[in-house]
Amino acid sequence: MNRNSRYAANYLFTAVVWSAVIICCALLCFLLSTIIWNGVYALSFKFLLSPASGFGANGGIIYQITGSILLIAVTAIISLPIALGVAIYKSEFLKSCRLQRLSNLLIYGLNGVPSVIFGIFGLIFFVNLLGAGISWFAGAIILAIMILPTIVLSTYQAINSIPTIYRESAQALGLDTWQIITRVLLPQGLDGAITGLLIGLARAIGETAPIMFVATAFSGVDIPDSLNGPITTLPTHILALAKQATDAQALQNAWGAGLVLLCLVMLLGFAALMGRIRLKTRWQ
Amino acid sequence: MTGKPALKLVAPVVSGATALIEAEKFNVWFHDTQVLKDIAVSFDKGLINCIVGPSGGGKSTFIRSINRINDGIDGFVVQGELSFKGRNIYAAGTDVTQIRKAIGIVFQKPCVFPKSISENVLFGLQPLRITKLEKLCVVEKQLKAVSLWKEVSHRLNDPATSLSIGQQQRLCIARTLAINPEVILLDEPTSALDPVSTRAIEELMLKLKDRYTLVFVTHNIQQAKRIADKLIFICEGQIIEQGDKDKLFNQPEHERTRIYLHDEYCEC
Ligand SMILES: Nc1ncnc2c1ncn2[C@@H]1O[C@H](COP(=O)(O)OP(=O)(O)OP(=O)(O)O)[C@@H](O)[C@H]1O
Ligand SMILES: [Mg+2]
């Protein structure tokens, strides 16, 4: 290659990279501005705090907000301890190389399962096999399984990044395995777990497919008073409203609900980012 | 292979009745590589037992084997006799945490936990089994023992990572003292430190040697000259020579010992 063609290749490459960046940013800006632009008109205290009526075309989204938050809160409570257990088992007890690889395969495999498959699984397992009927709790279990890999990997990474010398120093003081787990590994792994949890929840709160067959109903739902019974969430509400797109009021409410959902997701994402930063500074 | 159980009856040893740790034909492998060969040594109470030798000779491997920190390393295999108070450390059914509580170790690089200074001192204790007052007593006593109390008494709740490296190393020693061990192993504890901190640790060793059995690994021959009582020269996994410090420095039996101790050079 002579000098000129090297310069040309260099420029070309820079141009390709920059245009990719610009396209991504432009798309993101376009999406965000559209949602904000259209959603802002729907937002009011009344919209946020009153229940939906007329299949969502009228009224607000209070029960969709509470439903979404309840669902992911229970998802978090179910998935966090399981993920901590799996991550600790993987880092401390799974010594064989082959089992390590198998566990990676399973975790990444679970992570790659399309969300609608979780929905079908829920339908077959909870509704058909167990005869549970529509149950929001079953939905939370499905979401917990769905986000499990994210939390496990992030926790495992955090635990695995603890330098060996910390383990050895704790061992040298006569701490047994359990004490090392609770006093050295968990405090450190918890940051990673929370980060993974928030990322997972940010994904879970926006999902419709895994829960729409087992956990949700489109209208006439308020706050559930038992583990059984349906729930209504922001994404399923948006889906229902979008189906009535000819109704201008319904469409505007859909934009409004979309904006609220986006804010919740960004909140979770922001919290996860903060967790990441804290994690980085903790052990040098 | 984790060594045979202690069948050997502990006959009262005539001269070294105070030896707490004894090794006899002690061998270590990492996978297929033999790292220690037929180690035979005893560490006496009230002395600073100093291990010297060139890099890669197996000094760390040996003292880490004494309190079984090497157990977690893949491919670690031991054979032969290594006993603490006459009982084989590697005998089946030995309570490893008990061994580690009785034989503390301080590593080359100070490693404090990301907690406060006083929590670091108390790290090896059962937090639920002692009262707040006892905790304060332990913290004060051990920080005084390592001459750190004056420097940090006004900021016990500060993060331990805010201390200087030399202070951190003394904190690590305080943490080890707090679990009340009988033996303290130190693996080049001063090699990351400046001369002043090094001096402080050396003085600390001299102060502690009456109450503990100390095993001190060092690269620094001048340091060995300053503080050692007994000197053990390890090279390529074997003990070349051991004995009284003055004897090794002045009339070594082996040419290699003389060359190493005087020219800091080893041709093994
Ligand atoms: N975890 C391990 N796995 C395999 N081999 C090891 C391991 N740790 C140490 N070794 C080998 O054992 C030998 C002795 O190492 P060791 O760390 O005990 O030497 P040392 O005398 O402490 O050296 P230094 O003075 O540099 O600290 C070296 O050849 C080293 O490569
Ligand atoms: Mg070493």
TrEMBL record, chain A:
Ranges where the ABC transmembrane type-1 domain occurs: 65-272
GO MF annotation, one: phosphate transmembrane transporter activity
Cell location: Cell inner membrane; Cell membrane
Biological processes per GO annotation: phosphate ion transmembrane transport
CDD domains according to UniProt: TM_PBP2 (cd06261)
Gene Ontology terms: cellular component: plasma membrane
Gene3D superfamilies: MetI-like
Topology versus the membrane: Multi-pass membrane protein
InterPro entries the record matches: MetI-like (IPR000515), MetI-like_sf (IPR035906), Phosphate_PstA (IPR005672)
Transmembrane segments: 12-41, 61-84, 105-130, 136-159, 254-274
Assigned keywords, A-Z: Cell membrane, Membrane, Transmembrane, Transmembrane helix, Transport
One Pfam family linked to the record: BPD_transp_1
Entry's family note: Belongs to the binding-protein-dependent transport system permease family. CysTW subfamily.
Protein name: Phosphate transport system permease protein PstA
Organism lineage string: Bacteria, Pseudomonadati, Pseudomonadota, Gammaproteobacteria, Methylococcales
Gene designation: pstA
Automatic annotation (TrEMBL), chain B:
Signal peptide (from-to): none
Keyword Nucleotide-binding belongs to the record: yes
GO BP term, pick one: phosphate ion transmembrane transport
GO MF annotations, alphabetized: ATP binding; ATP hydrolysis activity; phosphate transmembrane transporter activity
Ranges for domain ABC transporter: 21-261
Listed PROSITE patterns: ABC_TRANSPORTER_2
Highest taxon of the lineage: Bacteria
UniProt keyword annotation of ATP-binding present: yes
GO cellular component: membrane
Keywords per UniProt: ATP-binding, Nucleotide-binding, Phosphate transport, Transport
InterPro entries attached to this UniProt entry: AAA+_ATPase, ABC_transporter-like_ATP-bd, P-loop_NTPase, PstB-like
Name used for this protein in its record: Phosphate transporter subunit ATP-binding component of ABC superfamily
Species whose genome carries this gene: Candidatus Methylobacter favarea
Encoding gene (name): pstB
